[in-house]
Amino acid sequence: MTDQDDLFGTAPHAPETAKPRTRGVQPAPVLADDAALAARLSPHVHLGTSTWSYPGWQGLVWAGRHSESTLSRTGLPAYAAHPLLRAVGIDRGFYRPLAASEFQRYAEQVAPGFRFTVKAPSLVTDALLRSEDGRGQQPNPLFLDPTTALHDFIEPAYEGLGATLGALVFQISPLPGPRLARMNEQFDLLHALLLALPRPPAGVLAVEVRDAAWLTPDFAALLRDTGARYCVGLHPKLPPLTEQLPLLRALWPGPLVARWNLNRLHGAYGYEEAEKKYGEFTEMLDPDPQTRAELARIIRGTAGAGQDCFVTISNKAEGSAPLSVRALAQAVADG
């Protein structure tokens, strides 16, 4: 077994703390166990949730009950005060591009050491233009277009997020059949896009996919040539994490980007089923210790090599994203 096959191990460091809140949405009282656990994690480890606006996290993240709209607007500082939540996803930009001022407003609400994972607009990452119910209607002429990506995503995010930028993720939606039959063309489009983009002032550019047809040596070579990272997608549309490791090994060493989106037991189209089952996301109803243990091992090795880890978890992964973050942090520290 080579060193890179022995993915991985790390040493403890003290975390940076988030800004205190004196009014508005207040953070839940910090548990002594969470503070002690956070102190055992490397500052390279940035764990968080896919977003921050869930009222059901009362007592886990928030003190008191707040509406989803209130949390969306003003809950970020309270979220970032949790010692284990050192990252968060911004998914709303997937539906419409965000301005630099919007990114800056988020960056100003968190402490140094906090990082954002941001999805690129679907305008660039979806090969189809879709109706409101998600049905593909016609080909998207701006799919993987470098100029659109630069103007509507890269430049505003670089300017607004600055040092809080963790990972900018091009999550490529499932490809229609004709494109899947011509994967070489899709590789060429992605290669041209990534080559056209300037390097980020902090963090990384990453690519997440929804079709296993991407997961080839050619894809790894493309990412290596452009300096982009593979975003590990923990989603039933893709093979399990262990089967995605060859891509990580081919790109070693380098930062880790991972998004744990949906528990495999729900199937590839199980978001609605998971949402109904998990209710207000207050309990870990479907723990997945195997995925958690493997992900923790990769995080330990990456951080131990002095590389950053940007990992965000959805409520649909195990039932409650804050509890999943706590369990993952424990697995990383205990390894």
UniProtKB/TrEMBL annotation:
InterPro entries: DUF72, UPF0759_sf. Residues 1-26 are annotated as: Disordered. It comes from the Bacteria. PANTHER family: DUF72 DOMAIN-CONTAINING PROTEIN, UNCHARACTERIZED PROTEIN YECE. This is DUF72 domain-containing protein. The lineage of its organism: Bacteria, Pseudomonadati, Pseudomonadota, Betaproteobacteria, Burkholderiales.
